[in-house]
Specification:
Structural class: alpha/beta
Helix content: 40-55%
Order of helices and strands: HEHHHEEHHHHHEEEHEHEHH
CATH topology of the largest domain: Trna Endonuclease, Chain: A, domain 1
Strand content: 5-15%
Number of strands: 8
Length: about 300
């Protein structure tokens, strides 16, 4: 069982409140987790943003919408109780309560119009044969924001990898050096590109201390996506490490590694970290190399402690 969406939670939440007692928000969350038989892992599952547990977030939005429709009331901080309208809604809707049902309540319609910014959207009646969705009604605003962030990140990762592929070989080496610096490598020493000096088999050196006694060697190869790095390339890099009496290296490519290459990296005595194109793209975006922030958004919730202290 996965964590149900907030609309699926609406009627079970209302049914739980049907005893007419005042219930705490956290008790409602626990009751819904029990009702849907969620496992410990599902109960602990966090939103991608890490802001809260997914079940807490979904129940929170279900109760917010029920409250906006007037089906539940909030007598105190973190408390809720079913209203007379809520009891009637349970009787009239024995199977499911969702946003379609809530649209029958003027208070909820007003809320939805505020959420949309007060503008009326075109309906199928206005444009025959065309259905214009309002939004994904199975998702909370947090879900929508997380989805937008994920979609944007996937698109930017693809674009930044494409941009890296267009760099010259030396340009790509410079990109890798800047990424490693942003990741904190060489903070006490240095990160330098060495291929220009003819240092065969190595494109960069990370000195982890001021004297350069602790070193990590870097190989950076800008290969087309259909040109995989194979076992011989890793063997050659391992030989270069051996020649420098090194035991740690990072092989970074815009392409991917064959199984043979990965086996070779595991087999040899030195420790070699392999970073393929998809991982490289993730790191570039994560550490802000070659990308820039465009827009940020903040979601708000009522500070019940603040109002309770007044």
């Amino acid at each position: 069982m996965t964590v149900p969406d907030y609309q699926t939670l609406m009627r079970p939440v209302l049914a739980y409140l049907a005893d007419g007692q005042v219930h705490r928000s956290r008790d409602v969350v626990d009751a819904m987790a029990d009702h849907f038989g969620l496992s410990d892992d599902e109960r602990a599952e966090m939103l991608p943003s890490g802001a809260s547990k997914r079940i807490n977030n979904r129940v929170g939005w279900a109760t917010t919408y029920l409250s906006q429709a007037g089906l539940i009331e909030r007598p105190g901080r973190g408390q809720m109780v079913i209203s007379a309208q809520g009891r009637e809604a349970l009787d009239r809707n024995p199977e499911r309560i969702d946003t379609t049902v809530l649209e029958a309540y003027p208070a909820f319609v007003e809320f939805r119009e505020r959420k949309r910014g007060g503008s009326r959207r075109e309906s199928p009646a206005d444009a025959p044969g065309v259905s214009v969705p309002d939004d994904d009604d199975t998702s909370t605003p947090n879900d929508l924001l997380d989805r937008a962030v994920s979609t944007n990140r996937a698109a930017v990762e693809s674009e930044v990898l494409a941009a890296a592929l267009k760099l010259s070989p030396t340009g790509f080496e410079e990109l890798v050096v800047r990424l490693l610096q942003k990741m904190g490598y060489g903070s006490l020493g240095s990160v330098e590109r060495t291929s220009a000096s003819g240092d065969a088999g190595v494109d960069g050196i990370i000195s982890q201390d001021p004297l350069g006694l602790d070193r990590i060697y870097v190989q950076a190869k800008r290969y087309a996506e259909d040109r995989a790095v194979d076992r011989p390339r890793i063997h050659e890099f391992a030989g270069a490490l051996l020649g420098k009496q090194g035991d740690r290296g990072v092989y970074i490519t815009t392409s991917r590694f064959t199984n043979g290459a990965r086996d070779e990296a595991e087999r040899i005595n030195a420790r070699i970290e392999l970073i393929g194109g998809s991982r490289l793209a993730e790191l570039l975006v994560q550490y802000g190399v070659g990308v820039q922030p465009e827009q940020s958004a903040t979601l708000y919730r009522v500070d019940e402690d603040f109002f309770d202290s007044i």
